[in-house]
Amino acid sequence: MMNGTLVTEFLILGFSEMPHLQVPLFLSFLCLYMAAVLGNLLIMVTISASPALHTPMYFFLVNLAVVDILCTSTILPKLLDIMVGGRTISYGGCMAQLYFFTWSMGAELLLFSAMAYDRFVAICCPLHYSAWMGPRVCAFLAGLVWSISLTNTSVNTSLVLRLPFCSSNVIEHFFCEIPPLLKLSCAPTQLNEAMAFAADVFLAVGNFSVIILSYGFIVASILRIRSAEGKRRAFSTCSAHLIVVTMYYSTVIYTYIRPASSYSLNKDKVVSVIYTSVAPTLNPLIYTLRNRDVKVALRRLLFCC
């Protein structure tokens, strides 16, 4: 039993209920982390070094790469440490992990909407693209993404900081996230749950609705394309984007839109792996490495080096 005023560290269970899978899991998460960091860094360098890619779409992709590196670097190094025996995390370290993870998650959700808006303007309003997506507009949208996500994480982390933890210091998860932390508090968490729910409705449900609406207009425009090849390429790009967006949003909504009392150990761990590890690793492949312009720029960069 822990006194709420004396909690100095938490014990993170990680995947301790599956001891026979520790080595495969360690290697899998190590590969995911390396792939996520190296893939996103490669995208950032390629876009920065290629003037032809200095467009709004790739500007947002660079921001997405930064967010993905922030997310994986916040979660996976500590997870790897947990899996080799370092299962404790200080109170301050836990709150810092919660802060930066929530920041990156909010920014990622908002960036998906900014990217969908960029594609909407490019496909549905091409004559207005240069005016509606100029450098100032892109900078404003990026600033909005980072400031809103920063405000969200500041509010939610502050609300967690005011909670006493007196029943247990054991986190039934592989990192410090809002639902498992609320489950440990011995004080009422209705305000925390309400704010997490409101943030989820705005950041996840709201942004997902904007993306679906944007892609509705995009699909309508694609259907008016006469070339069958043009339709195929456009639909291929849209489907890839929507698959990742749906996967990411559905898992976030599932985790945060429920009361803390319904938190489930094994099921929620699997869901969390998707938006903390899998999605940041897949983003470079789906959004950029499958793009012909990026492939050309990447070959030029590697050839020059």
From TrEMBL:
Keywords: Cell membrane, G-protein coupled receptor, Membrane, Olfaction, Receptor, Sensory transduction, Transducer, Transmembrane, Transmembrane helix. Signal peptide: none annotated. It is found in: Cell membrane. Coiled coil: none annotated. Its main location: membrane. GO terms for cellular component: plasma membrane. It is a multi-pass membrane protein. Residues 39-287 form the G-protein coupled receptors family 1 profile domain. One of its GO terms (molecular function) is olfactory receptor activity. The chain crosses the membrane at residues 25-45, 57-76, 96-117, 129-149, 201-223, 235-257, 269-289. CDD domains: 7tmA_OR13-like. The keyword Cell membrane applies. The keyword Signal does not apply. InterPro entries: GPCR_Rhodpsn, GPCR_Rhodpsn_7TM, Olfact_rcpt, Olfactory_GPCR. Possible taste receptor. This is Olfactory receptor 13G1-like isoform X2. The gene is LOC100763539.
